[in-house]
Amino acid sequence: MTFLQKFMSTVLPKTWAEEMQKESRSWMVRCTCGFERSVWDNGGIRWKAKGNPKFKSECSSCRQNTWHTMYHKSGLTAKQDWL
User: Fold this and answer.
1) Cα(40)–Cα(6) distance, rounded to whole angstroms?
2) d(Cα 66, Cα 83) in Å, to the nearest integer?
3) What angle do CA 52, 57, 62 make, to 5 degrees?
4) How far apart are CA 45 and CA 4, in angstroms?
5) What are 21-45's pLDDT values in tens digits?
6) 21-27: long-range contacts (C-beta < 8 A, 24 or more apart)?
7) Rounded Cα gap, residues 44 and 60, in angstroms
8) pLDDT of amino acid 37
9) 21 and 40 in contact (C-beta within 8 Å)?
10) In angstroms, what CA-CA distances link 55 with 18, 59, 66?
11) Distances (CA, A) of 56 to 13, 31, 32, 49, 69
12) How much is the pLDDT for 55?
């Protein structure tokens, strides 16, 4: 866990911390190369959030500085265009 994740897990009540981690794991970050992983595994927290923000970052798979899209697992359909 990152410092922020440890700090928030310590400060918040246990049930909230577990909810925060579970929800952060259901939010995914996808690179234009197709590589994706959860926000939590990426070192972040996304809790009680909405929207699908896009941001430029280095991909841990292709090592390119490309656009990444954040989305909730339940909100993506097979034919949805994410870029």
Assistant:
1) 12
2) 12
3) 110
4) 8
5) 999 999 999 999 999 999 999 999 9
6) 23/47, 23/48, 26/72, 26/73, 26/74, 27/70, 27/71, 27/72, 27/73
7) 14
8) 93
9) yes
10) 26, 11, 8
11) 33, 9, 10, 19, 9
12) 92
Tell me how long the chain is. 83
Please report the DSSP string for the chain in residue order.
Answer: --HHHHHHHHHS-HHHHHHHHHHHHHEEEEETTS-EEETTTTT----S--S--EEEEE-TTT--EEEEEEEEGGG--TT----
One-letter amino acid for residue 33 of the chain: C
- Residue for token pair 């699908």: 52
- Say how far apart CA 18 and CA 60 lie, in whole Å: 26
- Paired tokens of 12: 């918040």
